[in-house]
Each structure stands twice: as C-alpha cells, then as structure tokens.
Amino acid sequence: MRFLSLSIGARALLIAGALLVAGATRADLPADAAINAAAPLQTMQPKVIVNSGRLEWVPYYRDLTAWPTLSHQDRRSTPRPRKVKLDAPVRGDPARGRDLAMRPDKGYCIACHQLPGEEWPGSVGLSLERYKSYGHADELVFQQIFDARAFNPHSVMPPYGTFGILTVEEIADLVAYLQSLE
Fold it and tell me: What is the pLDDT of residue 35?
C-alpha cells in the first residue's frame, strides 16, 4: 500500500502510530504494533522524497517512548486523564493559536481536523471550520485540548496538556483561535 494514496486522515494516523511506537522497547509493545523488526527502535518521522512517491524515515527531534500506540492491545501505563479547573477567563492570542494549530511540533490540529483556508484538511476529527457557531464554553474547549480523555476515555486525541506537549498559555491561544472561527 502506498503512503501517498491513503486518505489524509489515514496518513495522519499512520504517522502518529509510527511516531508513537518507534521509541518503545519491543517487550513493551502490543503484538499488533507496526514496527520494523530489522530496525533499531527509535522515534522516527517520515520525510517525503520529492517527486518520488517514497518516504524516508528520519529520527524525530523528540522521544515519544512514553506515548501509547493506537493499538487496543497496548496496555502500557500512561498518565491518568486530568480535569482542569480554570481560575480566570481564557485570554489567548488567536494568531498564535492558528500558528500552533499548523505546527507539527505542537498542536498540529490540521493533521486530523479541517481548518478554514487550508488545502490539507484532516478527516479523523470533526471539522473546526466555523467552530464558534457550536457555542462551546471556553472552559470546555480548554479541557478538550488539555486532555480529551476526561470526556471520552477512548479518545485518540492526544492529551496535549497532560503530556506536556502544550503549555497552559498555548492551549489558551488555541481556544482563542477556535472561538474566533465564524
């Protein structure tokens, strides 16, 4: 199966799975984890070889060993879901939030969600276009980004706050960006 012939959502999940399992030890991984048994275990990411239809796997800048795989058989322990209580209104910067939504090393919302004005929409999560029209309170949106497992223990959305991928300020920026989408 060729990577580039997959849907964008399937590519995002394949990349996420490859990123998540590559740093674990073989003994820790479930039997159905997709790994290359001939390669040393390390966190890798795909790099597109332009005009070739091929990918090259290169070391990822961050070790994701502690992350679970998308396998239902993955029973490794992870940080428990965390609920957050906001002491003040969310005051973020929508421009910084949009930047975070596009950055592969931060939110990378575009990998799973549709965002306005983007040609590479994800298809795994719901569309975030006109997000403000949903009428969700800032606190609810903040919690969803911080750790979606607080609402749905089987969510595949990364727990950005609990895992330390995004700071509280960065999550506030994402909330401000999403709430600005009319």
Answer: 61
Question: Which residues are CB-neighbours of 168 under 8 A, at least 6 positions away?
Answer: 161
Query: For the segment 65-118, what is each residue's pLDDT rounded down to a tens digit?
Result: 566 666 667 777 778 899 998 888 899 999 999 999 998 888 889 888 989 987
List, as one string, the DSSP characters of 37-78.
TTSPP--EEEEEETTTTEEEEEE-SS--TTS--S-TT-----
Say if residues 161 and 171 touch (Cβ distance below 8 Å). Answer: yes
Domain ranges of the chain: 3-59, 94-179
Between 5 and 64, residue with greater pLDDT: 64
CATH 1.10.760.10 is the classification of domain 94-179: yes
**Residues 90, 81, 61, 27, Cα dihedral to 10°:** 180
